Structure formats: C-alpha cells, structure tokens
C-alpha cells in the first residue's frame, strides 16, 4: 500500500530519535523525501547514540528541517540555527545558552519550551521567553542559573504562557508576570520570595517540597483556583491562611505535610473561611493539620458538596479517630472515605 509523503512524515515523526528516523527513511526515495520535507519532530540525544557527540556541527545541521526539536547534545547551537523558523516545540537538555540578547519574536511559532539541566543566566532566560510571543508551556528543571550579583533574582514575563512547571531551582526571588497562566507547578524548589502577577486566570496550583517565604499568588488568582495541591511545604501561617480564605471556587484541595514555621496566633474569621468552599468535592489531608483545622483552617460549617475524603496518618491514636469522626459529621454527601498511611493518597489525588 502506497502512503502519501505527508503520512510517511507523520510516521517518521513518531519515531522521534534521529538515528531511527535515518534508518527508516532508507526504505525508499519516497520515505527519504518525507524525512527531508514532512518531518515534524526530531530528537538528537546522546543517550540514544553516543556518536552524536563526535559528529561535526555541519552533519547535525543537515537534519534540521522539521518543526519540533528535542536536543540533548552540546555540539549544536540550536537557538541560532532554528530562530525565525516555524519551530513549535523546543526541548533542550544538558546544554549551555549564553549571550542571548533581546530579540523581537525570534521564535514566532514556538508553543512549548522545555529546559532540563541547561546552563543559562536568568537574564538570558528572560530574553529567551520574551522572544517567544506564542509560547504556552514552559518547563524548567534543574537549571544551572548564574547566581551572583543581581541575577540571583529572576523576572519572567509572558502574555501567552498558560502552563509552567518549575523543578529543582534555587533563587532569592522569582517574579512571574503571566496574564493568561492557568497551571502553576513548583517542585523541589528553594525560593526566597515568589510573586505571581496575572489577571486571575490561574486554575491549578501545585506545590511539592517547596520552601517559599513569602508566597504571593495574588488575591484575584486565589479566588479563581479550582485545584490546590500542596505537599511537603513550609510557610508562614498567616500567609497560608490568607490564601485559603480566598478559595471561593475550589473543587479539590490536597494538603499533605504542610508545616508552619512562625508563631503567629492570628485567627482567620471562621464564618468567612467556611463560606469559601461551596464547590469543594474532594479533600485530602494528613493528620498534622488537626490543630490547624481546629483553629478554623476550613471553618466549622458543613462541607455540603464533599464526596471524596482522604485522610493520612503516621500513628493511629484516639485523637486521630476523634478527628476522623468530627470530619465525617461535616460531610453529609460523602460517598468515599480513604484512610492511608503517610502521604501516599495525596500524591495520587
């Protein structure tokens, strides 16, 4: 059966790895044409074929006709080669980016940008993001930032960004300006000060093993959040209560091993707090929050629409049993109760 070159291009794109694409394209002249003119995704990864590290740049550049690129080799300046092209996805790993100055729409079609263990200054990263006017997804994992002088802090600005995942970074300050951001996930980060500036579009907020003092996502964002998942998190009590009290539209809350480091005895107005969860249908908690619940973290009114309740424990005791009973009294429509050890349930909510 003869396939059009466009379909063959789609088949080759699903292979991804450049070495596999080259081998498959040797099937016939038609497949070779598809590789040259109709390829969408191509991956250069030294783990797939160590010879990549030994090839001259000119050999690698011959393959750069596709739309999406994944690069895990230091031999190629992918930003210089692919700029101003129809690049839609860029995934860089184990790479170095230097001297990326201000550039207006250098990547006009880029939708997704992922940097994993990339050596780049915070200023160059800011310029890179500004050069992508249509980028919607940003992943930053284990970045090697220049951490001296004023670049110890970072400001990122984007009018198109909708989803950001930040993992394993350490900075004194991060300011994120993203008017359309819907999903924010911070994991294994140590950030002195974090501030999100947006127009209240945030819907999903996830924190996992993060230290941030203080944390500011903006009142307008908290009011529109639908999913909040926080685990292994330490912060100021007053800051956390201030965010919780604003969750008027939240549908799912997961709080696992949340600790408070200050001695602030300020109470949130319980009537205002309990009125903030009319849409809450799923709740996951670990037992170290018992005291905070008694202080009005989730108020004292009925959780009228809660249907799934997950409770984690380290040691079964009479106090834990009493806590479960008190929570059950507040959930008249509960359909499912899960009691789990540690934080396992919260990690899979």
TrEMBL record:
<dbReference type="Pfam" id="PF24758">
    <property type="entry name" value="LRR_At5g56370"/>
</dbReference>
<feature type="domain" description="F-box/LRR-repeat protein 15/At3g58940/PEG3-like LRR">
    <location>
        <begin position="85"/>
        <end position="188"/>
    </location>
</feature>
<dbReference type="InterPro" id="IPR053772">
    <property type="entry name" value="At1g61320/At1g61330-like"/>
</dbReference>
<protein>
    <recommendedName>
        <fullName>F-box/LRR-repeat protein 15/At3g58940/PEG3-like LRR domain-containing protein</fullName>
    </recommendedName>
</protein>
<dbReference type="InterPro" id="IPR055411">
    <property type="entry name" value="LRR_FXL15/At3g58940/PEG3-like"/>
</dbReference>
<dbReference type="InterPro" id="IPR032675">
    <property type="entry name" value="LRR_dom_sf"/>
</dbReference>
